[in-house]
Amino acid sequence: MAEIITIGETMAAFVPKGTGYLHYIKDYELRIAGAESNLAIGACKLGHSASWISSLGDDELGYFVNNSIRAEGVETRYVQFHKKRPTGVMLKQILPGKETSVFYYREHSAASRMHKDMLKPEMFTGGKVLHLTGITPVLSDTCEELALQAAAMGKKEGLLLSFDPNIRRKLWKEKNYTKTLQKIVEYTNILMLGLDEAKTLYGTDEKEKIIEAFFQKEDAQYIAIKDGSRGAYVADRDGGYAIPPYPCTPVDPIGAGDAFNAGFLCGLLEGASVREAGEIAAIAGALATESYGDIEGYPTRRAIRRILDEKSGKDAEIYR
Fold this sequence. Notes:
Elements: E1 4-7, E2 11-16, E3 28-33, H1 35-45, E4 50-53, E5 55-57, H2 60-71, E6 80-82, E7 89-93, E8 101-105, E9 129-133, H3 141-156, E10 160-164, H4 169-172, H5 178-187, E11 190-194, H6 195-202, H7 207-214, E12 222-226, E13 232-236, E14 239-243, H8 256-269, H9 274-288, H10 301-312
Helix pairs in contact: 1-8, 3-5, 6-7, 8-9
């Protein structure tokens, strides 16, 4: 079984070949986009095994998404193909000097109809980490039940639960999902979140208070607080460290957070210290911003090792 197990929706992403408003764009490239599969792909690129559980439409876009993820080395045996619901679609709009805009067409997608009965104990057997995001539970009532059930089953099967709230207010609509995300945090061993998301969950954006609140949980082990171009802060029960941003030339920030998460988890699986894992995560997140598309800029294990060697001036002790 894979070391890292993820559950969530991945969409067919139409990325314009040029910049400008979409009503003037005629040419697109077809790619994939999904936070959970992004992390799974990032982990595979870094030399670890990952499994992605989801539902896709029994349609050409669904086959494209599944094939694309599987081609990156991710296990997709538990993906279900829905006969009556389509694969979700996303369009990107790229304007010079502005942040990339995203338009979703996923409300009635196959993944939005995922339900807790999809989950079987064998999906978790032999795994080390179950990674969830706050996107899945807000897709529908059944997805909310699925996410909570997955957290409980992962814990029962002895996996560490990794969680990124990944708050998307556009998907919340009229409902407040704060309590649902807080319930998942109660199962969480490894929390990776943005500073703004921490304010939603903990009512503060002060790092010390966020860390103190998380480590009040007996089974809390690691936390990474992401702050965009200002870097990150990572901590375990022995202390915390500021992680400076790795120098890069960003063109598209989408997918960078998932790359950071993959680097952080893989570093911990390698036996790295929380500080070393944070440095790996920062490098992965930075490199992800240097190309258009969610996963196209994700670094390989070799690329991370080369950067770590250059930074230390000698062979790095991890990622050999």
